[in-house]
Design brief:
This protein is mostly helical. It is 59% helix and 0% strand. It has one domain. The chain binds zinc ion.
Length: 285
């Protein structure tokens, strides 16, 4: 049973939710509310499986973070799904390039849009670690002292906007249909739950190209200097290409994730935190 969970969780759950979402857009079924149901089912499955086969049992216990993380997830997922509507509005307002490969099957268009959005995220994520101001906004995501299914959406809304905005806008300006962009984000919502999950799963050698938990945990190492690796959201090809990929077999354990500096534990104080700081978090961390 444990082997089934360890080896089957990602391909089965991620595979089914991605396939279901592709079927929805192929059938022309509206994004709302079905995409949220598909993403919700996938994310819930990850949350349940963490209880069955945890990577680090103590990470299943509240670290004074569950309530604010629920609020972060609610707003982050709301933002993701609202971006589909925003994409549609932008589509009406601005002239679009004719370069988008409309003749490709929808699944291939989702793949292409995903590559563009994913590279934009990688680049903005990398910049969020290099630039002091962007880091203050991004630090909330790194402040969690455990990794579990809700962490994927623990983001400052401004950071989320800056991370996802450029790649998404580029895809839209190149002519990507809103439902194609929305499909990618729905699939990614499930992937993000896996990426941060406390589930002891593996995808074997595919870890070298997919941003799964065993790779992404290195990115959450407590020491700022150690966390400058594995920026990828879905694809790890960007980290491979720019030599920021890191993995060793020993793995990341409890007490090794988070940030040197303490983050407030209430939602509103977390949102206000980047604007109250005047010194570099990295230097004082
Ligand atoms: Zn980061």
């Amino acid at each position: 049973m444990n082997d089934l969970v360890r080896l089957g969780s990602y391909p089965i759950i991620f595979g089914i939710t991605a396939f279901a979402q592709l079927l929805l857009i192929e059938a022309g079924i509206s994004h709302w509310p079905y995409a949220i149901l598909v993403a919700g089912a996938g994310i819930s499955a990850v949350a349940i499986l963490e209880r069955v086969l945890p990577y680090e049992p103590s990470w299943n216990l509240d670290h004074e973070d569950t309530l604010p993380d629920i609020l972060h997830a609610t707003f982050s997922l709301g933002f993701i799904f609202a971006s589909v509507e925003i994409a549609e509005i932008i589509r009406v307002l601005v002239p679009f390039s004719k370069v988008w490969p409309n003749t490709l099957p929808l699944w291939a268009q989702v793949f292409v849009a995903g590559l563009i959005i994913d590279f934009g995220l990688w680049l903005m994520h990398w910049l969020s670690h290099k630039n002091d101001y962007l880091w203050k906004l991004h630090a909330l995501h790194h402040s969690a002292e455990r990794l579990y299914w809700l962490n994927g959406e623990r983001r400052h809304p401004l950071s989320a906007l800056l991370l996802a905005g450029p790649g998404t806008l580029l895809a839209i300006f190149l002519g990507a249909p809103a439902e194609v962009v929305g499909c990618w984000y729905t699939i990614i919502a499930v992937h993000l739950a896996f990426q941060h999950s406390n589930l002891d799963y593996t995808v074997g050698p595919l870890r070298n190209i997919l941003g799964v938990a065993e790779i992404h945990r290195w990115h959450h190492k407590k020491e700022y200097e150690d966390s400058q690796v594995n920026f990828g959201e879905f694809w790890m090809i960007w980290d491979q290409l720019f030599r920021t990929f890191h993995h060793t077999v020993n793995g990341v354990k409890k007490g090794e994730v988070g940030m040197r500096e303490k983050m407030p534990t209430t939602y509103l104080k977390q949102i206000a935190w980047p604007f109250r700081r005047t010194t570099s978090v990295k230097k004082h961390g």
